[in-house]
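During the reporting period the student researcher (J.K.) took over the structure-prediction task from the postdoctoral fellow and processed the backlog of single-chain submissions. One of the processed entries is reproduced below for the supervisory committee.
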Amino acid sequence: MSFKQNRKLQEANPSFDADRLFELASRFSPTVAWRQDQHSEHEGWLVEVQSSFRLFGGASALLSKFWQEFEEFSDQLQLGNWPTATGAWWLSKGAPANTEADFLDMLNLQEADLLRLPVHVLDCGLSLQHTWQQCGFSCLGNLWQLPRAGFLKRFGQAVLAELDSGLGVQNKQAPLTVVHSPDPVFNQSIELPFHSNRTELLEHHAAGLLKALCKWLEANKKGTRELKLTFLQSRREWSNNQQVLQLRSGQATRCEKTWQRLLHHQLGRMKFKDDIHSLQLLCAYTETLADQNHTLLPDPVQNHADWDNTCDLLRARLGEQTVLFAASENDPRPECSIVLQSAPVGRQATPADKKPPGLSFSGHTPEPAKTGLQASTPRPLWLLPEPRKLQGAAPGWQSSNAWHLLSGPERVEFGWWDGQPCKRDYYCARNSQQSLVWLYQDLLEDSGAWFLHGYFA
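J.K. obtained the following structure tokens:
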């Protein structure tokens, strides 16, 4: 199937949006190609829809739906459909459909109808067209009936290859149809009609950029977790004349309302030194979104999405560091085994996101091929900021002092290469208040001192 616009009509109507046409066409097929004649004013899109007939209930239903979607461009476009891409392109140039009925009737066209098209539908130079006119060749059928050897000798391989391509004859020299793929990065700017730092005005124009972004993501069947919105200030002589707003989501999404809600809350906390003259929205990373299957019973995946949306909203209102997620690190030292990051646990955070709550270390590369520590004896989540040294008698298994050992030891010996070595024996114990605690004996000290490191809640 083909739909195109004459370049002269496009110049007369500058509102014509080729990207909008691609967005509509991509709803019917993943195979959309741009075609442009080399020797005439025709350009447009080719859409392979035969593989989508079943999804739309048949060829007639799909073409009818296609016509309705493109009704807003009905006075600008020339549409045609045929089993081959080149044949559809010829029809859109030589005998385009004027009504929906004409468009559907093209399903019943025969090869003879295609051969009756005028020769000017071929993508060739004016000199060749003039030669055919002098020879009395007025339609494609006249050219198709000529001997192939003589045709090739007099008119060239390119014209013969186009004829073969339109009529379904294999020809190695036929032009290839390259599937159109949008840019992998969304980067769009908008200049404000007048300079201002009013929050409601900036939000209004930024919402327009978000709408364009979500359409771009939908056309690519993708979502994103992070956007960069840049506000360019009027005074260009300043060394730093721009302010950047990072919009982050806990899950990949292309929902326009989600991004607008995050924008509303974060923009309200920004202060601008000067008026803003333009906005720029950048989406550098995308993820392919899985198709959603609706279920009769409550879906746990949807519950997880609601939780992510709640965390996103809290971060947008209160700041990035107000909502942090715990994740494990490949380090047996308890104070280094848990990190807090701004991204959810399901997504691997960048090193800049990780902020160890206790002792930090450098120079250690986690073991590859492992995503977390292997199971060991129970460990508490409630660790003291700094281990507290115990005074008095050492804890024992059967003793009358305040500390009664229950299980252990668990030997942790690690970090001798990074300048922060540890060699400890950890025990689960019970104190005088009957609380379950975590103790260790430091074996690097000659005295073998004991420390309280955490509580089991």
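The committee noted the following: Residues 11-15, 346-375 have pLDDT under 50 and may be disordered.
J.K. will present the remaining backlog at the next meeting.
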